[in-house]
Amino acid sequence: MTATIIDGKAFAAKVRGQVAEQVARLKADHGLIPGLAVVLVGADPASEVYVRSKGKMTVEVGMNSFEHKLAADTSEADLLALIDKLNNDPQVNGILVQLPLPDHLNEDLVINSIAPQKDVDGFHISNVGLLGTGQKSMVPCTPLGCLMMLRAHHGSLSGLDAVVIGRSNIVGKPMAQLLLGDSCTVTVAHSRTRDLPAVVRRADIVVAAVGRAQMVPGDWIKPGATVIDVGINRIEKDGGGTRLVGDVDYDSCAAVAGAITPVPGGVGPMTIACLLANTLTATCRDNNIPETTGLTA
Ligand SMILES: Nc1nc2c(c(=O)[nH]1)N[C@@H](CN(C=O)c1ccc(C(=O)N[C@@H](CCC(=O)O)C(=O)O)cc1)CN2
């Protein structure tokens, strides 16, 4: 079997197009322009690229972008004061603090200081609790992107066996909650899981989010299964230079799977598209305007 490639880049462009249409509608019907504030502390090169991309795409869909770049040695008090200002700014509907933060800053404290209704990353403890109990919440962007692609590929996910490899707060745990919400039978596997190959082999859906380059080989995959690769790892290329690979061994998995996301061009682009969708959702909820179906969980 040769897997269908799930083209995340094209899917993300479609989602951004839908967001742009809805932003135009908000402007025309309600005189509203959604605003997204992105806060970057320090100068991590990868984070700088992601933040630039977020700002550019925010403007492209017709929203206002507010970028706050702070020095690496910014104090926690100063960062919390900025978040408080953004929480109280009516022009700002969504707030995102780019991760990772420098070591001297308490990530949980910073995230939990964002007003939950403006937490477009869905990382605030209130949103985590709402998602975990099946209530309306802001949903973390990367798992939301994975869910959108899975729904588009499968239609209904009900009754499917799903294995999520990785138990991070940002991807693994919310992904498991979303799959449960769509009535999958969900296993969360991690570094202590016994006989991981056997666990993965029974899955109709495999979501790999461990952060270990090419860890999942094709002979762990059930023929016809859908493989969603969340990993973004840079490795040495034969003959010099580097290249990006996921957490699954693409060639051997694509030979067995029914469908697979590539790296790059799979889950990654959906993260920013879903951030824009979440900013739209936050703006609608804040103004009691019905949300666009398909752009939320
Ligand atoms: N506050 C947050 N911080 C971080 C998040 C997040 O969702 N919220 N996620 C990641 C980084 N990230 C967005 O912030 C992100 C990562 C990857 C991509 C992407 O499009 N990747 C491309 C490859 C890019 C490359 O060439 O390096 C792909 O997979 O095709 C977008 C956004 C950590 N921090």
Summarize the structure.
The protein is α/β, with parallel strands linked by helices and 297 residues long. It folds into two domains: 31-115, Rossmann fold; 141-268, NAD(P)-binding Rossmann-like Domain (Rossmann fold), CATH 3.40.50.720. 40% of the residues lie in helices and 16% in strands.
Key traits:
single chain; 297 residues; alpha/beta; Rossmann fold; 2 domains; six-stranded parallel β-sheet; three-stranded parallel β-sheet; 10 helices; 16% strand; globular; binds the ligand Nc1nc2c(c(=O)[nH]1)N[C@@H](CN(C=O)c1ccc(C(=O)N[C@@H](CCC(=O)O)C(=O)O)cc1)CN2
Approximate helicity band? 40-55%
CATH class of the largest domain: Alpha Beta
Beta fraction: 15-25%
Task: Give the strand tally.
Answer: 11
Protein name: Bifunctional protein FolD
Organism: Sedimentitalea nanhaiensis
InterPro entries: Aminoacid_DH-like_N_sf (IPR046346), NAD(P)-bd_dom_sf (IPR036291), THF_DH/CycHdrlase (IPR000672), THF_DH/CycHdrlase_cat_dom (IPR020630), THF_DH/CycHdrlase_CS (IPR020867), THF_DH/CycHdrlase_NAD-bd_dom (IPR020631)
Catalytic activity: (6R)-5,10-methylene-5,6,7,8-tetrahydrofolate + NADP(+) = (6R)-5,10-methenyltetrahydrofolate + NADPH; (6R)-5,10-methenyltetrahydrofolate + H2O = (6R)-10-formyltetrahydrofolate + H(+)
